[in-house]
Amino acid sequence: MIINRIVVLLFIIGFSACEESSNIDVPITYNFERNGESSVSFEGQTIRILMAEELISSMADFNQTKEQLLEMYSNQTSNGDDANPFSIEWLNESTKSIKSKVAASRDFYSANAAESALIRGDLESWILNQVQEIYSNQSVAATKGQAGQIADGSSVRYVNKKGLEYNQVVGKALIGALMIDQMCNNYLSQSVLDEADNIDNNDAGILAMDKNYTTMEHKWDEAYGYLFGASANSDDPTGTIGSDDSFLNKYLGRVDGDDDFSGIGIDIYNAFKLGRAAIVAGNYKVRDEQAEILREKLATVIGVRAVYYLQKGKNSLSSRAWGTAFHDLSEGFGFIYSLQFCRQSNSSLPYFSRTEVNNFIEQLLEANGFWDVSANTLDQISKEIADKFEFTVEQAAN
Questions:
Q1: Measuring CA to CA, which residue among 338, 327, 270 is closest to residue 300?
Q2: Cα separations (Å) of 198 from 108, 226, 227, 324?
């Protein structure tokens, strides 16, 4: 009898949620208009994705200087030889920067400036190390304790004395420190969406100054932009997920291509659409439900890829394919670093704290780093991550 009552109660709750969502007009694509014109805008997110693309590609260009690379990261110089580091001129003209949004979310870092500074410093140090350790050893063969070049099939990788590729670390760390943090802990947060008079203004249709959107609509769109801001068709990016940028979009495509996680891409896209439509309808309960879905599924992408690369690196180490292994483990390092920005659904806590993440990193880099890291260590870290996200190591390793 008790079980029957529980089943009925769950059915009622599920039916009520579906009924509430069915009263919201959800467009076929992420196309929202007001007075015949688009009310969607995420230009700043597109700019930062493009800046990050140039930064990562430039780290592999041995003609760059540390000043040019740091300028791509911070975009603070107003004059001088390093003032225009980007190949796209309008990026040089922008007042936006990558660094200003790294570890800068309202929920995680507004009251934790010290940790934010440490994270920004991590990225700066990796960029500087690329010049100081890698550029200066471009023609040296990498060996245990010696930075330099190492073969990876037909490719050449450039690693530090512990086998770490700094450009891979920076690229994957930005997925968490920039994209995930801004999406999940800032723009999808109630503290940002409902700030000041946002609810009243959204209910009354009061637009942001000289814009065609309410402030709440815009905040949601900015979260969307960090995933789909570089898509060829940002209204309907589902056909190109995985090929639109080198960051979160790329790895969402990789995870979606795994049969164990197939459909996660369209689930995320649909949650963004329904959440935005709920804002238009003034239904903040449904909006917040979609935000929680997004936090869970976006975090899953990071967790899956962290485990995937640790396992891929482990397999290459067993065959002494050092270059391939170091490349994969460097990507895994970056995804592990990004775990501290992944927020548990219906919680204010990350899946892994900075202390826990640093503990993983210390295990990977102790002694001679990737040259000596054991299969047991890689399996242990993989299992801790997989258990937290409630998938298996085997599922993620496919």
A1: 338
A2: 21, 22, 24, 50
Residue 18 pLDDT > 60: no
- Measure the CA–CA gap between 93 and 86, rounded to whole angstroms: 10
Lowest average pLDDT, out of 7-11, 34-38, 150-154, 341-345, goes to 7-11
pTM (predicted TM-score): 0.94
CA 212/CA 196 separation, integer angstroms: 19
Q: Length of the chain, please? A: 398
Measured distance CA(99)–CA(121) in Å, rounded:
10
Report CA Rg, the chain. 22
Separation between Cα atoms, residue 120 and residue 117, nearest integer Å: 5
d(CA 391, CA 398): 12
Q: How confident is the model at residue 1 (pLDDT cuts 50, 70, 90)?
A: very low
Query: Which of helix, strand or coil describes residue 161?
Result: coil
Q: At a CB cut-off of 8 Å and minimum separation 6, what does 300 contact?
A: 255, 261, 264, 389, 391
| Digit-coded pLDDT (tens) for 224-273 | 999 999 999 999 999 999 999 999 999 999 999 999 999 999 999 999 99
Residue range 335-370, pLDDT digits in tens: 999 999 999 999 999 999 999 999 999 999 999 999
Q: What's the distance, CA 304 to chain centroid? A: 13
Contacts of 180 (CB under 8 A, 6+ apart): 248, 298, 299, 302, 338, 341, 342
Q: Give the whole-angstrom CA distance, residue 205 versus residue 224.
A: 21
